[in-house]
Specification:
The structure is a homodimer. Chain A is an alpha+beta fold. Chain A contains 7 helices and 8 strands. In chain A, the strands form 2 sheets. Chain A has a 6-stranded antiparallel sheet with strand order 1-7-8-4-3-5. A two-stranded antiparallel ribbon of chain A has the order 2-6. The radius of gyration of chain A is 18 Å and the shape is globular. Chains A and B meet through α1, β7, α6 and α7 of A and α1, α3 and α4 of B. The structure holds a DNA duplex.
DNA sequence: TTGAGGCCCATAGTGTCCCATGATACTCCA
DNA sequence: TGGAGTATCATGGGACACTATGGGCCTCAA
């Protein structure tokens, strides 16, 4: 219970952005910090991002478990569930990371995300994204412009205050991170 | 009381301003008092400040956990959330502090904040900022001028009174700091 | 048999660890 | 009260470990 120190310890989040190369065999190194965020597993799931941004989205077994649980919550035969299961479960590649931390991207994935020789890995909290570097630059600029807007900053500030307030009032519900993982 | 004490214990605040040098390897010493405020963690997150002031903003795992909680609070697919996640999570560098308290600034960060050989660390309550010393001087002057304005002082006085009042009425939520921390 | 994927080893570069140094602030005692 | 000893801090630099990447070989399936 050493305050925040312990809490943060179990933190498995994909943070930051890294660039790496696709070699002649179509292999890409997953950034070391992302491998750490995967928590030791060597299975990677990747699919074309749902939002149409043209990047790949992916994560490890933990993320897939989250999605499975989430999809299960949707009404069994709803069009939404069918669509999402098809898109995420059926549509994702199930890749195995080799012992030097690389995965092999299939041709379909490469084509779908317009990847050629270099890629950008972008952290997205519970998942990460794989981008064509040029597209990523555009995307990042657009997001930065959006983030700089008055309304956006205000929304952030507001939400931050709420979190702060709840923390200060001792709400255990706000344990930001999972517990220990000694 | 107990609960509060615990929470506050991890609540270390970044206060004051320090200057330090970037060595030939691109390393910078984090001021000792900031290291203490980090609560023992050795992971530092840094990103270009959202407000366009041209400094870097950063903190430790506790701060990142706060932001994670904050971002999670925003509507899942809102443009604001996407933008902020990209800007803060993907846009931040995930650095490791060595055991003498130094971090290595990447070239992008150096360029983005216009850093060369010396930097200013400025406390910002639960985060800190890293400035080009000259820019920081300008910024400080501008802030001093703003702070001297009638409206600003009035706002301060007003808010202070509210806090005083709430404290007097026994609201434990306002206990920001704890004394016993031997 | 041929191509692809998996596994292993090799290597360059960079980041991290560790030790050392000088400077400053602080403590303690005469 | 002043000075020596001590602790802490910022900084420098060498050695090493790890990461990203390249490439060879083996296996398996068509």
């Amino acid at each position: 219970m050493r305050g925040l120190g312990r809490i943060s310890q179990g933190w498995r989040v994909f943070v930051s952005t890294y660039e790496s190369a696709i070699d002649a065999k179509g292999r890409v190194s997953i950034p070391a910090s992302f491998r750490a965020a995967l928590g030791g597993g060597n299975r990677i799931f990747l699919w074309l991002a749902l939002d149409g941004s043209g990047c790949l989205e992916g994560g490890g077994e933990a993320l897939m478990a989250m999605y499975r649980a989430t999809l299960t919550r949707l009404a069994p035969h709803s069009p939404a569930r069918k669509a999402l299961v098809t898109r995420i479960i059926a549509g994702s590649a199930d890749l195995k990371m080799d012992d030097t931390g690389r995965i092999k991207l299939s041709d379909e994935l490469m084509k779908a995300a317009n990847l050629t020789d270099r890629v950008k890995f972008a952290g997205n909290m519970d998942s990460f994204q794989i981008w064509n570097p040029d597209r990523h630059a555009e995307h990042f600029d657009a997001m930065a412009a959006e983030a700089a807007k008055e309304d956006t900053l205000e929304a952030l500030g507001h939400a931050y205050s709420e979190v702060l307030h709840q923390q200060a009032s001792g709400s255990a519900a706000l344990k930001l991170v999972d517990g220990d993982d000694s």
